[in-house]
Amino acid sequence: MEVLAGGGRGGLLHAVLLAGAALVALTGGAEAWAHHGAAGARAGAERRYRDLAAGRMESVRSSFGKARRGLATSSAGSRVYHVTDYGADPTGAADATAAIKKAIADAFSPPSNATMTAGIPDLGGAEIHLDGGTYLVNGPLTLPASGGGNFKIHSGSLRASAEFPTDRYLIELSAGSSAASSSSSYHYEYVTLRDLMLDCGYRGGGVAVVDSLRVGVDNCYITGFETEGIAVRGGHETYIRNTFLGQHMTAGTDPGERSFGGTAIRLDGNDNSVSDVVVFSAATGIMVTGGANTISGVHCYNKATGFGGTGIHLKVPGLTQTWLSNCYMDYTSIVAEDPVLLHVSGSFFLGDANVVLKAVNGVARGVQITGNMFNGRGKGVDIVQLDGEFGTVEQVYVQQNSAMGMNLKATTARGSAEGNGSSWTVDFAPVLLFPDRIGHVQYSLVAGDAFPGHTLRNISGNQVVVATDKAVSATVHVLVDQNSN
Ligand SMILES: *[C@@H]1O[C@H](CO)[C@@H](O)[C@H](O)[C@H]1NC(C)=O
Ligand SMILES: *[C@@H]1O[C@H](CO)[C@@H](O)[C@H](O)[C@H]1NC(C)=O
Ligand SMILES: *[C@@H]1O[C@H](CO)[C@@H](O)[C@H](O)[C@H]1NC(C)=O
User: Fold this and answer.
1) What are the tens digits of pLDDT across the range 320-359?
2) What are phi and psi of 254, to 5 degrees?
3) Cα-atom radius of gyration of the chain, to the nearest Å?
4) Residue 473 CA, closest ligand 2 atom number
5) Which sequence ranges are marked TM in the entry (predicted)?
6) DSSP E strands, 359-411
7) Are 348 and 372 in contact (CB under 8 A)?
8) Residues 1-12: tens digit of each pLDDT
9) CA of 448 to the centre of ligand 2 (A)
């Protein structure tokens, strides 16, 4: 097998390091000789070994150059496909769609009969290398419908031209119509998109991942999307990490913020993960319409909720199965429709950003919103807010959050009332999340030396009333929980 670009480059670096190490080692040796007084011998030895190292580097360079030139025509050997070898213009002046597609087609010719899940051809680690260039594309780079896995596209920029179709994506992992005929199967597996800047030119979207398994989008910057920055449909285990998405290149307080559009990430599938991602402009940060997705370390400042934006929209009423942690919701809220199995913790909400539970069929079950920090502007915004009425509320825990400048809402609360008489009322309406719902009450009555008969009289309207059989001076301490279990 000929040494080609990928191996050649790694090999070159290795060779340089080795040559360097040899030089250092031998210089040390020369120093040792100098102690025996032979200064001339020392200089000669240094020169000799420097020449040796230089010669070695030169021979590596020339074999590397030869390999590099032979790349485009080589069918066996390296699986690194440099798009510039296919004539793609790295200056971004001329359309490079056909050249890059040709490189992708070559990479999709499998090196062996090895297959991955569901018979997906194993491309053996093939890479489309963008050579640090910027490429103009008139149409989507759609991976071949024959499918493939163990493949990467990396290290460069793609820019949609003014002719780019508005309903497509710069990179599409999509088998198109053949996917419809075999909708249950997967077409791509372990495809990595890394170190890419994608500029959709306010026309289409950035990346579509359809019916794929184990796809990684890592360290990308996706901008100019009109539809979605990244759209995942079907399949599972798309991992979006360390990535920046924004329709407009901006860094907050943008005069055009009210008109931001598009969705940075759409997860229309299960078992995906979004971590360490920033959404800096879009109407919606993340739209989730599938279950069992995890979101962590996401900073959303896409379009303030006050301007009609949404940070994270969980549109999976009745089976949310989403867990969110360590996020920074920066003026943009989380909206969850009929949350069933939802966890939100360890997150920071700034600028009146909150969590909105939106009733569709009025079911909230298995919800944990705990241990978050909220910071608002003193306008009386609830940290967790209901949009509509919930008839079914089970295992909903909104507690141990901290708030400044916002109303602290919870599903459990403590309070006390002090007075001289026979009735004590503790009003939990301002703090309890669900109206007129108390599932559990515990109280104690402290009346000094008095020993009155007492009872829980009423809990209607989230107001707890305790009564005594005679007038006493007493304090009543009450603990309530909106769950009955
Ligand atoms: C791949 O499979 C074909 C058909 O079964 C066979 O002819 C060929 O030798 C195989 N190639 C390798 C590299 O195993
Ligand atoms: C409570 O009220 C009763 C009569 O209503 C009065 O006699 C008593 O002094 C009061 N006690 C206190 C502690 O205010
Ligand atoms: C509880 O309080 C509500 C509101 O004040 C009232 O309508 C209701 O009749 C009370 N229930 C009882 C059992 O006293």
Assistant:
1) 999 999 999 999 999 999 999 999 999 999 999 999 999 9
2) -85, 130
3) 32
4) 13
5) none
6) 363-370, 373-375, 384-387, 392-399, 402-404
7) yes
8) 333 333 333 333
9) 13
Ligand 1 nearest atom to the CA of residue 112, by list position: 13
Distance 459 CA to ligand 3 centre (A): 8
Dump strand ranges (E) for 255-383: 263-270, 273-281, 284-288, 293-300, 310-314, 322-325, 328-330, 334-337, 340-345, 348-350, 355-358, 363-370, 373-375
User: If you search the block for the tokens 């100019």, which residue do you land on?
Assistant: 224
175, 134 Cβ separation under 8 angstroms? no
Q: b vs e for 340-372, b when ≥16 Cβ sit within 10 Å of the residue's Cβ?
A: bbbbbbebebbbbbbbbbbbeeebbbebbbeeb
Q: Which residues contact 168 (CB under 8 A, 6 or more apart)?
A: 139, 140, 204, 205, 208
| Ligand 1-lining residues (CB < 6 angstroms) | 112-113
Q: Which two tokens stand for residue 179?
A: 């996917």
Contact of 386 with 360, CB cutoff 8 Å: no
Query: Which residue's C-alpha comes closest to atom 12 of ligand 3?
Result: 458
Cα–Cα distance, 239 to 245 (Å, whole number): 15
Mutate to test the pocket of ligand 1, among 109, 113, 123 (most ligand atoms within 8 A of CB): 113
d(CA 196, CA 158): 8
Reported as a single tens digit per residue, the pLDDT across 15-57 is 333 333 333 333 333 333 333 334 444 455 555 444 544 443 4
The closest ligand to the CA of 471 turns out to be: 2
Separation of alpha carbons 244 and 264, rounded Å: 9
